[in-house]
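Quick one - inputs below.
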Amino acid sequence: MKPLPIIPDHPIGPRPNEGVVINYEAFFERQLSGLRREGRYRVFADIERQAGRFPRALHHGPHGTREVTVWCSNDYLGMGQHPEVLMAMHAAIDRCGAGAGGTRNISGTNDYHVLLERELADLHGTGAALLFNSGYMANWATLSTLAARLPGCVVFSDELNHASMIEGIRHSRATKLTFAHNDAADLDRKLAALDPGLPKLVAFESVYSMDGDIAPIGELCDVASAHTAMTYLDEVHAVGLYGPRGGGIAERDGHSQKLTVIEGTLAISFWPYMIPFSITVDQAAAPHSSLAFMFWGEGLFVFPLMLLYTVVNYSVFLGKVRHTGEHY
Amino acid sequence: MKPLPIIPDHPIGPRPNEGVVINYEAFFERQLSGLRREGRYRVFADIERQAGRFPRALHHGPHGTREVTVWCSNDYLGMGQHPEVLMAMHAAIDRCGAGAGGTRNISGTNDYHVLLERELADLHGTGAALLFNSGYMANWATLSTLAARLPGCVVFSDELNHASMIEGIRHSRATKLTFAHNDAADLDRKLAALDPGLPKLVAFESVYSMDGDIAPIGELCDVASAHTAMTYLDEVHAVGLYGPRGGGIAERDGHSQKLTVIEGTLAISFWPYMIPFSITVDQAAAPHSSLAFMFWGEGLFVFPLMLLYTVVNYSVFLGKVRHTGEHY
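Output:
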């Protein structure tokens, strides 16, 4: 594309005359200037983590490199530098090499993935688990698929749900109704107002990261059950921190079996490994894998998975938890 | 949620009577049965790659484990088991530990990411590059953001474009027009029929994976330029295989500078590392980072990035290519 003439004040929009030029560069520059003016332009800190020195790291800035303490990490427990975690990664690289080698359809399902999915299903007491390559995609793909596949489905979404959940619901094109944050009574009223024969899905989080408050999971599940609604719980800020085995708030409070789908992550508390994961849970009768494998079976999309080493690390963490019980 | 009564033939849909139950389990089981009947139910092969034995691997099946040759890998060049790649991964783990430790906003921008983005920008001769955690997300986020930000934008999409591009365009809610596959004349006709003052974006791939054919990049860019349209090229099946430095078909044919945005991957030819990446290119005037950083600046979403080791590997590969010239 040849360089476009600079016409800074040229508006973008319909212009019926021939020979017009459009200055995309100037348009985007104006948009960015607006972001800068509003303080919303993001500059990423160039950080170099130091194995064994958590939470210290090197910060590479315009005026040189200095040592800093990272106070805003997702590596809550420092597991990303746990010697056993790193040893397990070294061993997996030596054994299998780097990378999955393909999507899950074409030779990209490594035995490590299979073992990890089994271990995660066991952790949550469910029939199956399914890995995604980010928590964002897990929420997006699962909610959009579930709600889209159920004819006439209505999704009840906590008003403070994460953007990935909102986008997934939006993508399903199902009707979405929001209920007041953590308010089981409001959810009950809104469910009661709906045709009882419609399929329904209630989606919420356990720990809300911005406010730090915790959902009344049992109450919300009971209300959902009374109205024959499925439930979807995002536990990304709780797995690894709560529950006898780190299964999250639902495990801590004994509500795991009330939930239809649980989504978690390996990227935060368990250890800040490279990748979050999703747990898709089929809570009811055999065959237990129904919901879990539907997402792949649908051919919605398939990602190369990246959890080559995680089952080993995961065991390490569970071992640590069982032995010390130090985190809850 | 309490177990729901099994009513296999109960249809899901509006039913005005109270006391109805909805058998989600039976519904999804019927859907899965349909997939199985049509041969579309996917079963993943449980594969264990063997470092140093590419393309041989172990296959774990219901009747035991046996050695197989993987013919359907994305690891085109076997770089996932290249000794220098694995050595670089070991070194990075020893130096920084595992994981990014956060999203890019919160201490998750590792120095390795920054160095890799610089190297990728240099490879494509562009001002900036931006990493995503999958090729799917790169296409989805970039196309949806670009098309959504430009008021009245019309996107021209090759009829064989990948699902991730189609979803991104759909998410932008911009008008989408398809043009005949690899047909510059058809694109020209359709662009000519449009109000010349509208912002336009032409999106296509270089190598189409299902048919293996190659786009006439130069012609498509010339047509786009004549109608003042931006261009977006998906090079995921070409980077690492074509061009003097592995920059893809655009580099091989000398068209890199004609493109507005190029998207590539680290997951296929370069080496089947855990993660694809995206290159977002701002092709025009300074500051070169405009488009690239817009996606983060917009706050659309931020992922923990996972490319902790890739810049080292990338250098290894480029070195290999320069020394042997064996792949093109």
